[in-house]
Amino acid sequence: MSRARWVPLALAWGVLVLCGLPALAITFSRALASTDLRAVRLAAFAPFGVGLYVLCLVAVLVLVWLATGPGRMRFAVLAGVVALLLAVHVAWQAPLYAGSRATSAGEPLTVMTTNLFEGKGETDAVVEAVRAHKVNVLAIQEITPEAFAELSRTLRDQLPYRIGEAAPGTTGTMLFADQPITKSRRIETSMGSWVADVGERRVVVAHPAPPTLASWPAEQELMIEEAAAEKPDLLLGDLNASLDHHTVRRLLDDADMQDAARASNAGWQPTWPTEGFAGVPLPPSTAIDHVLIGDDLVALATETVEVPRSDHLALVAYLGTPEE
Asked: Please, what is the Cα angle at 45 between 92 and 21, to 5 degrees?
């Protein structure tokens, strides 16, 4: 075999194996809705399946081009299978970019959720974002007593009402608002979640366990049950799950809610981890921070905001009441 033939052949097989194996693992993890924690972690990377299958399809088409005789037909069939899997992933991600969306609303409402990474995130950046975006409701996860003291002082005029608990480490969760907060109670997730009335709206701030802990399935079920029972107008926080996890999709269905990023066609907005993986500096790769809305709200847009020293990007959602 000539060099002009075996080099592209070897490259094509290499790309097919290196991209195909993780792509299949991600696809099955997303499709099977498993609660196995390894599958749960893989499902979070479903958006990468589009790129992986594109590379696989290119590799298979190169193999079709190089093959002769019956081998060409076998590779052509494989190309069809890869194209089908690519189409499945595109269909999973397309609602983030296309579909009907509200372009205007009545009374505006701006909300923000941020995880302070054990209180390490810079509170000055949070305050700056709250003021710049004129935030009405702020959910904070992993808020420590020190961070609370600073935020309580600097936000006392803009967001004077608050409920929740500040605590060392990862278990502090609080809700700040510009309207009175009443009828609050704790939802018993290990990291702290709360439900309360903010003005006339029922609001849940959520922080269930991450999929590195065995309690992930049970706490996801708890959030589904609470959302279905409360039917909140607004649910926001670090869900430790993305729209590619069956638990978030069930929550949306059972509570009759929408994801604000998807409802506004904002596209894929990954929020974690900002510090990369295993010391390798990489951009955020999973969208686990969410703003979910009920029928009494519409989503106009969402965007992420950097909070230095946190491992999460904050998520800001511009909402409003439906126009009559």
From this structure: 95
